[in-house]
Specification:
Elements lengths: L1 E2 L11 H26 L14 H8 L7 E5 L3 H6 L4 H8 L23 E5 L5 H14 L6 E6 L6 H13 L3 E7 L2 E2 L2 E2 L22 E4 L3 H16 L5 E6 L17 H8 L3 H11 L4 H24 L5 H5 L13
Parallel strand pairs: 1-8, 2-3, 2-4, 4-5, 5-9, 8-9
Antiparallel strand pairs: 6-7
């Protein structure tokens, strides 16, 4: 099994890319901090699922994707959509139900998409998007492009039939898709280990589909970048899919209404010490990057988030006509009455 220990620095990315990855992680963290505040103010009309503590996975993979490549993710998808370049203002507007949102305020936190950035949707049904990702990859293969599909899912999806069906199809047809299991150790409130026959729910099942097991530290952006670089290279070369299991941990509960009291305090403390942003900041400084560069990124991120949130809050709510747009085949529900 390929396993990259915590603390290693493969160094496949150049310094400019690594600084950009740090910047993206900080922007995502600041964005979700503001989302949590908006939720507690009653401005996010449904729930939302934060990926705070898991940013390195989205950023490390996205750094290897090109315009034209596609990303599919779960309801915990803020980081993935932002990492592909989507507007924070449009994201905030979507979460609070404004007309200027990515989907006109109709999708909310759990159904984000931005086709122009290659973000082909966040999916609320566990594992449902895995065969869809295979379909998108088959389209790229059929059209003879070098496009790659990145498909993210949680550890719980590995016990869903769609996971096995999607992987089998991708392996048989050698589809250009990179499957990434974000193993944050809990299926909603249930520890994955208590309901799974193998220790590593994704990596230990890879050989069943003729794939090499890849198990990595998902809290190390350099490690994620290297694994994703190899997987994307394989996919573009026509060598088929890769299944990566990235071990990580969410800082908060399953959703914004979950206090996460089911997690042992010692476990939480251990993983908080392995914060991906803290790890990366320390490494960049140790390698000689001027601290003022990172401090400026930190300050700019908070400013950008506040500006984006303010603009979204000032945006109008969608009209009835806008709400019905793209819902019915003829653009409205009038034919039903």
């Amino acid at each position: 099994m390929t396993s990259t220990p915590i603390g290693t620095t493969p160094g496949r990315a150049d310094q400019a890319t690594r600084v950009q990855m740090y910047e993206q992680m900080v922007h995502i963290r600041s964005f979700e901090k503001r989302v949590l505040a908006l939720f507690h103010q009653g401005l996010v009309p449904a729930t939302s699922h934060l990926s705070t503590g898991m940013e390195a996975i989205a950023v490390g993979v996205a750094a290897n994707l090109r315009p034209g490549d596609s990303t599919l993710c779960t309801y915990r998808g803020h980081a993935h959509v932002l990492a592909r370049g989507s507007s924070m203002e449009a994201m905030f507007a979507e979460l609070i139900g404004r007309a200027t949102g990515l989907l006109g305020g109709k999708g909310g936190s759990m159904h984000l998409a931005s086709a122009e950035h290659g973000a082909l949707g966040s999916y609320a049904i566990v594992g449902a998007h895995i065969p869809i990702a295979a379909g998108v990859a088959w389209s790229a293969q059929y059209r003879n492009t070098d496009q790659v599909v990145a498909c993210f899912f949680g550890d719980g999806a590995t016990n869903i039939g769609a996971f096995h069906e999607g992987l089998n199809l991708a392996a048989v047809w050698k589809l250009p898709v990179v499957f990434v299991c974000e193993n944050n150790r809990y299926m909603e409130y249930t520890p994955i280990g208590s309901v799974t026959a193998v220790a590593h729910p994704a990596a230990d099942r890879a050989r069943a589909y003729g794939l090499e097991p890849v198990l990595i530290d998902g809290n190390d952006a350099d490690v994620v970048f290297t694994a994703a670089a190899e997987a994307c290279s394989r996919a573009r070369a026509g060598d088929g899919p890769t299944l990566i299991e990235a071990e990580t941990y969410r800082h908060f509960g399953h959703s914004n209404s979950d206090p996460a009291k089911y997690r042992p305090e010692a476990e939480v403390e251990e993983w908080l010490e392995r914060d991906p942003i803290t790890i990366y900041r320390s490494r960049l400084l140790a390698e000689g990057l001027d601290e003022s560069v990172l401090t400026q990124i930190d300050v700019s991120a908070d400013d950008a988030v506040e500006q984006a949130a303010s603009a979204a809050l000032a945006a109008p709510v969608p009209t009835v006509d806008e709400i019905e747009k793209n819902v019915w085949a003829d653009g409205s529900g009038s034919w039903r009455s």
